[in-house]
Each structure stands twice: as C-alpha cells, then as structure tokens.
Amino acid sequence: MSSKTIAALLANMGFILQVSGILTILPIVASFLLNETSETTIALFITSMSFLVLGFLTNSLCEKKEMTYKQSCILIVSVFVILSIIGSIPYMYIQITSGDMLALVTDSLFESVSGYTSTGFTIIPDLSVLPQSIILYRALTQFIGGIGIVLVLLAFFYPEAKLKEFARSMGYGKNNNRIKKTFLFIIGLDCVFTAVMIAIGYAFGYHDVIALASSVFSAVSTGGFSPVNDFNALVTQTPLGVILPICMVFGASNILVFAGLFRKKFKEYFNSEITVLLVLIAALTAIMTIFYGLNSYDAGFHVISAMSTCGFSYLPLSTWGDSLKLLLVTLMFVGGASFSTAGGVKIYRIMLLLKSVPTTVANAVTGKEIKVRLFEKEYDNSAIIQTGIMVFLTSALIIVSSLVVSYSGGFNWVDALFECTAAVGTTGLSVGIASPSMALGLKWLFMALMLVGRVEIIVFLVMFSRVKEKRVSNGNTYDFTKKTGAESMDAYLSSEPDVPSEASSESPAPE
Q1: 428 dihedral zone (left: phi>0; alpha: psi -120 to 50; beta)
Q2: What is the DSSP track for 395-453?
Q3: In the chain, which residues have pLDDT < 50?
Q4: Which is the most buried residue in 119, 301, 442, 463, by most CB within 10 A?
Q5: pTM value?
Q6: Is the residue at 377 inside a domain?
Q7: Which sign, positive or negative, has the C-alpha torsion 486, 492, 494, 498?
Q8: DSSP letters of 228-280?
Q9: Could you write out the DSSP letters of every residue in 204-215?
Q10: Domain membership flag for residue 12
Q11: Which pLDDT belongs to residue 492?
C-alpha cells in the first residue's frame, strides 16, 4: 500500500473517528443524569476522547483527497475494524466478563464487533448488572453501524465530487449525481423515524426511556441487542409489541422507495422489494402457524426478525426442529431489501437470479442477449454474473465456516449452519453456540464472519485485490471491472422522469 493511499485513508478515517467520538457523548450524558458510578463515566469518556484525539491527529496530519473505489473499500473495512477496537474500551474497563486478560479482550471485542456490524450476538452473561448508560451505548453502536450514520455524515462536510467513490464502495452506484442529497435524505429519514417511534412508545405508556430507546435503536438498525435479559417481558408490553415489528420492517425496507413516496411516485412503492418483503412475511407467517403450531404473533415476529436480520427473539430456538431452523436459515440468508439496514444477500439478488434462468435459456436459443427486467430496471449478463458470484461466495463462506464450527466445537451441523448464517447475515439469532462459554478461537472466527458479512464479501475481496486501477482522461479513477453498485438513486430523488439506466446494468448493491 503506497504512502499516498495510507495518507488518504488516515485523513478520511480521522473525520469518521471524530464523529464517532461526538456521538459517544450521548451515553456519557446519560451516565451523568442517572448518577452512575464514576467508573462507567470514565470508561465512556476514555472511549470518546480516544475517538476524538486519534481522529484529530489523523485528520490534521493528512490532507483529504478524492479516493478511488479500492481505497474507499479499504476505508470502509478499516472503519469497522477501528470502530470495533476503540469501541471495546467500555466493555474492557467495566469487565463485562470474568476470566484472564485474553478472554476479557476477546469478549469485549466480540461485543463491540457485534454492535458495530449490527449483528446482535452477545456474550454478556447478565445484562442486569450493566449500567444503563452502557446498555444505551451498546444500542448506539448498532445504530451507528447499522444505518451507516458515520459514513452518511460525510455528506455534511464533503463536496459532491469527493463522495463519488464512497457511494460506489457503499453500493450506491457510480452514476448517481445527487449523492449528497441522497445521504442527507437517508440519515434524516432514519433519525426522524427513530425519534417518532420512541415518542410513540413513551406516549403509550412505556416510560423506561433507556430500554425504549435501546430497543428502537436496535430494531431500526436491524441490530438485535436486547436491553434486558428477559426480552419476552419487554415485547409483551403493549406499545413495544407493536412498535418493534414496525421498526424492523422499516429497517429491512428499501429506504429510497420511501423517497419516491414524497414525490408521489406510488408505482415505485408497489412495484418494489417492499411489496415482495410484505408478501413473504405474510406467507411464511401462515406456514409457520399452520404447519409448525406457533401462534400467529410469535410466527410473524420471528419471520420479521429473521428476514430483517434484526435477530430479536423471545422463544427458545435451540429446542426447535431442524426443518424450522433451516427455514429461518433461508430467511436470514436472503435478508431484506437493497438500500436497507438489513443484512443477507438481499431479496432482489435472489429474484434477479431466478428471473435470469428463463432469460439464459432464451439467450441460448436465440443467440441474442436478452436483458433481465426487474422492478422497472434492466440488468445485463455482466450484472447477473456478478450477482451470482456474490451469492455463491457468500454461500460457500457460510458452509465452510459451519463445517469448521461443527467439527471443532462438536455441534450439530444444522445448529452450526444456523449460527454461521446469522453471523454472515448480521442477524444475531442464536441457538446457543454464540455464548460466553464459546471457545476463544470460535469467537474470533465469528468476529471475522460478522465483519465480512457487514461490508459484503466483494468489498472485502477488493481490499486485497492486486488489480491496479486506471485513470481515464477526465481524471476520474475507476477500477477495471467498473460495474459495482446497483441502480442509480437519481430516479427516486430527482423530480425529473426516471433516467434511462446505464446504471441499471450495474451489479446489485449492498445495503
């Protein structure tokens, strides 16, 4: 890695660290207001100052420059790693688990990685002993990582031109000419929706503000950290039993479709992944109710939790039969919609591959390339191939890692497959393998799976690619493959008619 690349990474990472430090002030304020022990406040203060000081140093010593696509991929992976390392300080300081130093460091990192990747696995044996500000801090890490708030906040300070490659590495398409407006809309809608849900919960009688805010943060970011040991007692409270499923569905929905509603583009709303998501939720809820004997609410809640990759659960999943576990594995693997906080490979990728089967046959018969049309956009063979590779690599990663977990830990393979799918899909539903008693080696394996799943495997591989990017005559930098990121968001955010989509042939995007 060249010195110019390192300098560009450090400068941009510095800003992100500074923003993270500012956001960490929220649980510090909560700690003061709740009159918690100085130990808790100090732990959060050290974390915030670590973010701010390191961010200030890297930001001031290095000049911000426009980044290439590969550099942006490296930045995104590095951001989640650095955030997780510094973010583990409060857990280590208050000693969330007992054991030697290596075990404490591993457990603290595991909890931090699980938070920032919005997975929701936890190895804390008893949440009731945690200070309320730490409970809020855990949920905040999910909100930061889940909705990509740190990267989205770049829009407030970066010029439009410097956001191009960030957008591509985040999967928003290289042809979007309104990136700043898009980023601002995403963060604005997420924050407003979160605030409204918290206000509704409080107005309807749930007055434990920390538990309420933490639950809504987790649901909107599809993270899944529970603020209490007994989640069943929480979800049976009237407002939360209704609010949390709504928040999970919102988090799993394509947020850009909501942008279309503001411009009265109702056709895009009904002809989108959101409709498919709602139909699947209804159908699978009926299947689990009729064939597996669950009541309709329990079935619906867990279908939503799995498809949104939130990971909330109040039933003993370890006692479920293998067929029901495999059904949830499928839901976690597919995940939610594109441009959502949900993990998984995304609904439209699966639909694109399914629709490409008859198209491939037609191409073979006619000898002509027939593009696949999905949600009013066309995808060529290049986009379909890249989608297939992404789905294949994700499947291979899950299967191989599940075999490792099953063999090394002596677990049932279906249980290992369930847990590894939950990690790569950043879901957090667990049958009990991810626990305080899990071997240290497996904890490190699951941390790696969560990180790869959060940034998606293609972005992770680009970071290690030796293929050099080339510069074109206008000075912009592109990689040889070019086609990363999916449909242009201009069609949703512009008042003009939908643009003919050169971006349609882009490979489908991550969340």
Answers
A1: left
A2: HHHHHHHHHHHHHHHT--HHHHHHHHHHHHTT----SSSSSTTS-HHHHHHHHHHHHHH
A3: 169-170, 174-175, 471-511
A4: 119
A5: 0.87
A6: no
A7: positive
A8: SS-HHHHHTSHHHHHHHHHHHHHHHS-HHHHHHHHTT-HHHHHSSHHHHHHHH
A9: TT---HHHHHHH
A10: yes
A11: 34
Alpha-carbon torsion 220, 223, 227, 231, what sign? positive
Alpha carbon distance 418, 381 (integer Å): 32
Dump pLDDT digits (tens) for 74-114.
Answer: 888 888 999 999 999 999 999 888 878 999 999 999 999 99
Lookup result for tokens 């918690």: 36
Question: Which residue, chain included where needed, has tokens 């998501």?
Answer: 277
Structure token digits, residue 409: 């830990």
Cβ atoms of 302 and 313 closer than 8 Å: yes
439-442: long-range pairs with CB below 8 Å, 24+ = 439/408, 439/409, 440/102, 440/103, 440/106, 441/408, 442/405, 442/408, 442/409
The CA distance from 169 to 511, in Å, is: 11
Give the pairing type, strands 470-471 and 477-478.
antiparallel
pLDDT of residue 441: 95
Q: Give the C-alpha separation, 13 to 319, whole Å.
A: 44
Domain count, the chain: 1
**104 and 95 Cβ atoms separated by less than 8 Å:** yes
Q: Could you tell me the CA-to-CA distances from 370 to 355, 356, 361, 366 in Å, in that order?
A: 12, 10, 10, 9
Angle at 66 between CA 3 and CA 502, to 5 degrees: 130
User: Which of 155, 146, 157 minimizes the C-alpha distance to 178?
Assistant: 155
| Rounded Cα gap, residues 237 and 332, in angstroms | 26
State whether residue 4 is helix, strand or coil.
Answer: helix
* Amino acid symbol at 158: Y
Query: How far apart, in whole angstroms, are the C-alpha atoms of residue 503 and residue 175?
Result: 6
State the residue range of the domain holding 22: 3-262
Does residue 148 sit within a domain? yes
Q: How far apart are the first and last CA of the chain?
A: 27
Provide the H-helix boundaries in 98-178: 101-116, 132-146, 149-152, 154-157, 164-169
H or E stretch at 290: helix 273-292
Q: Give domain status of residue 342, yes or no.
A: no
Angle between helices 25-33 and 132-146 (to 10 degrees): 160
Give 316-361 as a DSSP string.
Answer: -GGGS-HHHHHHHHHHHHH-S-TTSS--SS-HHHHHHHHHHHHHHH
